[in-house]
Amino acid sequence: MTWRSKDILERPEWSMHRSLYKSMGYSDYDLDRPLIGIANSWNRVVPGHYNLNQVSKFVKQGIHQAGGTPVEFGVIAACDGIAQGHAGMHYILPTRDLITNDIEMMVEAHRLDAVVLLGSCDKIVPAMLMAAARLDLPAIIVVGGPMEGGCQFDGRSADITSVMEGLGMLKTGKIDEENYLNLEDCAGPTCGSCSFLGTANTMCCVAEAMGLSLPGSATIPATYAGRWRVAQESGRQIVDLLKQGITARQILNQKGIENGIRLSTAIGGSTNVALHIPAIGYEADCEVSMDLFEKLCRSTPHIAKMNPAAAPNVPDFHHAGGVPAVMKELLPILHADALTVTGKTIAENLAAAGAPNRMIIKTIEDPWSNEGGLAVLRGNLAPHTAVTKPAAIQPDMHIFTGTANCFDSEEAANQAILDGKVTEGEVIVIRYEGPKGGPGMREMYKAMKLIYGRGLALKTAVVTDGRFSGTNNGCFVGHVSPEAAEGGPLAIVQNGDEITIDIPNRNLHLNLSDQQIQERLAGWQRPAPKFKRGYLALYSRLAESADKGAIIRHKLD
Prior knowledge:
alpha/beta; Rossmann fold; Glucose Oxidase, domain 1; 2 domains; four-stranded parallel β-sheet; globular
């Protein structure tokens, strides 16, 4: 076996480099083995990452067992939940590119031979997949696992978002303050990525489906001993990948990416996959358009249901069979010959998958729905595309017509909902929240939860150039492209205009004539940027639109 770190550690020319490593306690024995990077996003801010230092210990054990030397470094990770509903959410999506860049810089600057990527949450796992594809070295992702469900609330196990739903109920007198404060204490009983199928757990499942995580590993709860065992096995496996010469793009190719899309829509995953998978495709030199998303979503049945589409949470899904059980059902429409980090194909991995719990995971012949959980819309209000999640929307809300109630920021919409200024039959338009206009494409999570808490989830709709949390339900359409800040039609909608959401026909329509729309656009003026310095000022200039994955282009074509 040969590896590239040897080139900068050979004596006598490179003895200075060996001396630098030895100053930290590395021995000649360590430096004569491959250097395996561990990109660890552990911190004490993000619940999903709180256990990653323990996960890292077992990864290191596995690397040592297999004949490698672990070299660990830190990576930033921000919590979508703590950033919700205030200016902090501007910074969340932009961290995706920073994490990708940081991993590339650390691995390349130190000529590491392979990398294990430790993450769990919304932008961190996508960023790590992007970094793996960009580096094209042996790579494997190890996630921290989901938290357990909390106390019983509103007919199911509570999760962190139940607290925001409870706020709406508190404001309308449906629950009292004592019960509300108790919910704060019991909604999140353990560390881990939030227990519902939000973006975090969706992307962990997608990483497994794409083949970059070990089979069955995505959904092992954060506090289970199985989490440590799979971490140790991943440490051994990264050394084996190096020995076999299997690099990330042999796995993160068109086949692996399409398998990931099918899995995400089969489980009713977060709409944010429509941002992240195109960005991964860009790094992997694969074509991932919204047309491809729509094609795969239309032809993939929705076979697994969990919170927010049903009461079971992600740990329940794990016990029901998890990702392997779903993929075994989907095998006839997957790329069965796609390579994975086991060194085997998807089909070979799935041969050992057991029988699932049919209360959660249906068959491909008898699914929850014949089409997948996501849908791509177009229309005169979204000339490029928009994204919604039929799996989280009641069937009788799949066609909705209402009058526009327009807000130029998330904060303005949230305050209006709290003040009772949003009423039945309205389409709440929240604009200037896209990648450029936000900047950072904030989640409209808080607005949706407040609507739910006030009993309006089945009586109103939300349309935005921002995005949504994977736990949202009601009637919602996001990722409207082009965004308002780029002069998209969303910018010229006025209060009282009629908007129709038609999911079966994949249409988002502003009920005005083309002439009226063009006349309004002619009088539209681009608003001043919200940030004039710092990273967000740069991001707002560089980020592509949502239908392109909000990427920052860096390739010289």
